[in-house]
Amino acid sequence: MASTPSAIPPMRFEDLEAFLVVIDQGNLHRAAETLGMTQSGLSKTLARLEGEAGMPLFERTPRGLVPTGAGRTLATHARRISLAAGDMRSELAEQRAARAGTVRLGAIPYLLPSLLSPLLARFFLSRPLATFSIETHLSARLVAMLQNGEADLILAARPASVPADIAWLPLGPLSMQIVCRSAHPRRDGFRTLADLAGERWVVPASSLYLRQWLEDRFTAVGLPPPRVAVESTASPVAFGELLRHSDLLGIMPPRMLRQAEGHGLAAIDAPGTSWQHELAVLWRADGYLSPICQDFRDAVVAWCEEMAL
Fold it and tell me: Residue limits of the HTH lysR-type domain (predicted)?
């Protein structure tokens, strides 16, 4: 008769939390300092977990602690448990605080003045006790924050393929435009994408959606990707000053050309030099979304419909 695997004994939640800190720090001493416990006490915690797992969870290397295959498996499940516990605490706290609460919000920088500031002013009229913690990043970083449980909601460009663990609602299109300084010496000759192939660019980092979408404009017509002079994870709007004082090309929402950030810049008016991406509000599909977060999500959607973002 075939034997069945022996059951793994229950693991303590606080041990799993400590284990995740060790994973993140990769060093026992730093992890113990972060947790406010002694190194020997943390070693006993890890030994207890390894005993319960029946397998080593870490390899000791000169570079620090590296998780084994079993350690990586445990870390995946431990993070889910940690997120679920955080959701549980949030839900219980929300029930105590009724309609008050905190919204951890991520947004692309462009939306802060154009959408969030006026929307928050209206939202506080009906939710005066709400609090917001807002971080601005580009879309790829925001999606990672959401999946890691660092944000409740994000306002970002919708990925071409939305991960299965994320739910979303559309907010409207975000237009992007290839731009240069108004006095660019070759501006009048920029009539096709091929005319831009020899120029040097300020572009988003290769890991970002904006960079991928820009390069797709060129490769779709058989051209090589833009020649990079500067690449960055910062918002393209942050490089307005550089574009104004150089012959580099860049990208920017057309609306910004009518604001101070776009002073001295001009759109390159040629086929294929402007395009649109869908903006969305996104949240974890299987995570707890507090009533205040739900209210703000719905307020964002209604505002964008009203203002035709």
Answer: 11-68
Summarised one tens digit per residue, pLDDT across range 25-84 is 988 889 899 999 999 999 999 999 988 888 899 998 888 889 999 999 999 999 999 888
Angle at 203 between CA 202 and CA 205, to 5 degrees: 135
Residue 182 confidence (pLDDT): 96
Against a cut of 0.70, is the pTM above it? no
CATH 3.40.190.10 placement within the chain: 99-170+278-307, 174-277
CATH topology of domain 174-277: D-Maltodextrin-Binding Protein; domain 2 (3.40.190)
CA distance 5 to 166: 35
pLDDT of 245 higher than 90: yes
Separation CA 177–CA 42 (nearest Å): 53
Q: Which CATH number fits domain 99-170+278-307: 1.10.1040.20, 3.40.50.1820, 3.90.640.20, 3.40.190.10?
A: 3.40.190.10
Picking from 67-81, 172-186, 201-215, 280-294, which range would have the lowest pLDDT averaged per residue? 201-215
